[in-house]
TrEMBL record:
Residues 47-198 form the AAA+ ATPase domain. InterPro entries: AAA+_ATPase (IPR003593), ATPase_dyneun-rel_AAA (IPR011704), CbbQ/NirQ/NorQ/GpvN (IPR050764), P-loop_NTPase (IPR027417). It holds the Pfam family AAA_5. This is MoxR-like ATPase. Signal peptide: none annotated. It comes from the Bacteria. Gene3D superfamilies: P-loop containing nucleotide triphosphate hydrolases. It comes from Sporosarcina psychrophila (Bacillus psychrophilus).
């Protein structure tokens, strides 16, 4: 794993966004939808600022975190938040084991403790799905103190120099709740939009390298139309998910485009009218 100084040197060596984008897509990594997003997130990481990624489902937030992990050669511990998330899921738990013929109580370290001690990236996905009363335990981890007193063991843990926190949220989705101000203020926040234009085309060709030019163009048109209807309020955000679009395109290399879009995009939508609208948009480009 790179030290903080090595991270800074590595960051300075990235000369332009375009160069970084080409290299990362060749490695199967994240492609930034704007000229500055990738570089600005990296700078925040090097400055030890907790990063909050905001954006719709399928916009690439997890991919961005994974690419940062790869870029810095830094392992990542992941937490998938839900209403069932508790302190044990974050910090660890006590268990009874047999050792040298004796029964002892051992503490199994959770992702937060492991990431802090080993200098890993801690990725907290859908942080606004967790119960508000669960997360204050992380306040001292996320601010200038970068430390934690483990309530299960009494151990005081100071974060490794390379310890990094990246969180992600899907705003306004069912089951989510607004982040409280005390938690939100500990992050530097970035909006992660869907890919469009040349960046999306680059990802399509990387994901489906044997797809015909016509198929790529068809899905670019479909993507544009889906995004327009999302902006018009006629489709929910997930209809324009890049992840779903790429799934549909991969299927369409083997089955008709209409069926591929139906399975990968339309059938995921709860609203019958939305499903019908998606298929009508496809009919515009597929005869």
């Amino acid at each position: 794993m790179n030290s903080l100084v090595e991270k800074e040197q590595q960051l300075r060596s990235t000369k332009t966004h375009d160069t970084a984008a080409v290299r990362l897509i060749q490695e199967g990594g994240y492609v930034s939808p704007s000229p500055h997003l990738w570089d600005d997130v990296l700078i925040s990481i090097v400055l030890k600022k907790p990063v909050l990624l905001k954006g719709p489902s399928g916009s690439g937030k997890t991919k961005l975190a994974q690419t940062i992990s790869h870029y810095f050669n830094q392992p990542m511990q992941s937490i998938n938040c839900s209403v069932d998330l508790d302190a044990e899921a974050l910090l660890g738990f006590k268990t009874i084991i047999s050792k040298d013929g004796e029964t002892i109580i051992e503490f199994v370290e959770g992702p937060v403790v492991q990431a802090m001690k080993k200098g890993h990236i801690l990725y907290i996905d859908e942080i606004n799905m967790a119960r508000p009363e669960t997360l204050p335990i992380l306040h001292s981890v996320l601010d200038h103190r970068r430390m934690l007193t483990n309530p299960f063991t009494g151990e005081v843990i100071y974060a490794h120099e390379d310890f990094t926190v990246i969180s992600a949220i899907n705003e306004g989705y069912v089951g989510t709740s607004p982040m409280n101000e005390a938690l939100k203020n500990r992050f530097v926040s970035f909006t992660v939009p869907y890919l469009t234009g040349e960046q999306l085309e680059l990802v399509m060709k990387d994901t489906c390298p044997f797809a015909s030019k016509q198929l790529v163009e068809t899905f670019l048109h479909i993507s544009i139309d889906l995004k327009k209807q999302v902006m018009n309020g006629l489709l929910s955000d997930e209809a324009a998910s890049v992840r779903s679009l790429l799934d549909a395109m991969a299927l369409a290399e083997h089955i008709p485009v209409k069926r591929a879009v139906q399975y990968a995009i339309a059938e995921k939508l709860d609203d019958t009218i939305e499903r019908r609208l998606v298929m009508e948009l496809v009919d515009t480009w597929v005869k």
